[in-house]
Structures are given as structure tokens and as C-alpha cells.
Here is the input.
Amino acid sequence: MKLGSKVIVGNWKMYKTVTEAIAFVDALLPKISNYKESVLLAVPFTALWPLHEKCKNTPLEIGAQTMNSAEEGAFTGEIAGRMLKEAGASFVLLGHSERRRLSGETDSVIHKKVERALEDNLLPIVCVGETLEERKEGRSEEVLERQLKSVFEGLKWKGDLLVAYEPVWAIGTGQTATPDIIDNIHAFIEEKVEALLGVKPRILYGGSANSANAPTLLAIPNVGGLLIGGASLDLESFLSIIENSHSFQ
Ligand code: PEP
Here is the structure.
């Protein structure tokens, strides 16, 4: 995986069957074939293996949207990191706010998942972000600090590190955080993570990014890329964002 200065990560959530995923990737690959930097796409588990062969020796890296913290075991319905790795995943999203809210993932569970992902040679992309209520109460930094501390404290890792700042109020709402908020929060996250791990993280922004606002978001100096939900499902929108990011490399 070769990370450019602005990394684009799509998150398909629970959209696209295998047939739909293959059609999308078949159309995307010829358009990005001469790119040197990787484009990342977090797909449903079922699409990993079918996309694996297609993405070999291409700039497209496929990954998963969650995993279990155990190596293997009697955990009905769960998936292990090494299963994802063998099925073709090179990265995994961890701590997405939809997982925190819908599946009760706590910071300490996310910490264990990050450890396991690193053991299984998967690059974790750790998502953090405050809710609207927390922002209104002026507690954004306090919440982010707690999330970062629980997830990263005690981790022995000196390699690439991707953190996605995804304010919960901006995900799927059409309401993007302002450049000022993003700039301040990214600086805050960078400082906290560096203090915890001694590693400078790359910080992605996520929350209603689309082809229209991507040029503004990507131009913010401490935005290391974008995590894109809805707009990654549409080929034209996703391509337009990728092409824009390419102009910064
Ligand atoms: C996401 O799911 O991580 C996300 C940022 O979604 P959206 O782009 O749709 O807001």
C-alpha cells in the first residue's frame, strides 16, 4: 500500500451485493490504473474475496469495516482479522460511530481490536468523533481525548497510523464540519496521538464529504485524506473525489 499525501477511503457500509461490487470495481479500475497512490475501499465481507483477484497489482486496496478482537473462537456471526487478511483485506475500519452506536462498541473493545488488527497485519483506520450533544455542551475535545487515550494508550506501534475524525453529527447528514473546526480538531488529535505513541498520525476527515466539497476539505493542510460513506457508492462522485485528491500528490 502506498499512501499519498491525501488518502481517499470509501466506506460502503451495508450496501452493494457481490455482483454490484464487481461491476463498480470493473468500472473504477481502468480510470485509476496509472495512479501511484493507493485508493482504499472498505467493502462488505462478502465482496472481499471476489474483489481480491481483481485488485492485485492495482492502486485499489480493499478492506473491511469491522472485525472481532479475538484470534478465532466460538463467536457466532463474528469475523477474525486473519480471515479478512486471507480474503484480501489490507486494512480495517475500527470504531466507526455506527458500530459504537448500533453494536455497543466501547473504547476498550476498540483498543483490543486495534491490537489484533496490527497482529494480523491489517492497517487499522481508527474512527473518533463527538456527538452533536457533546459539541453543543463544549465537550468535543474532552470526548476525543478520552477516545484517543483508551484506544492508543499502551499500544506498541511505530508504523503508519490512520485516524479518521468523524463528527457523529456530520455522518450521513449533509452537514459538513467547517474548515476551522476540522483544522483545530485535527491539530488536537495529532498532538494527543503523538504524545501517546510517539508517532505522527495521518488524520482523515469524514462526514458528508462529497465531490462538491472535497476540493475545500482536501485543501486544509492538516487533512491527510477523506473517509467517504454515501458519495463512495456512486462511481462518478467517488472518481471525482479521487481525481481531486490526485492533484495534491
Ligand atoms: C462514514 O460512514 O464514515 C461517512 C463519513 O459517511 P458519509 O460520508 O455518508 O457522511
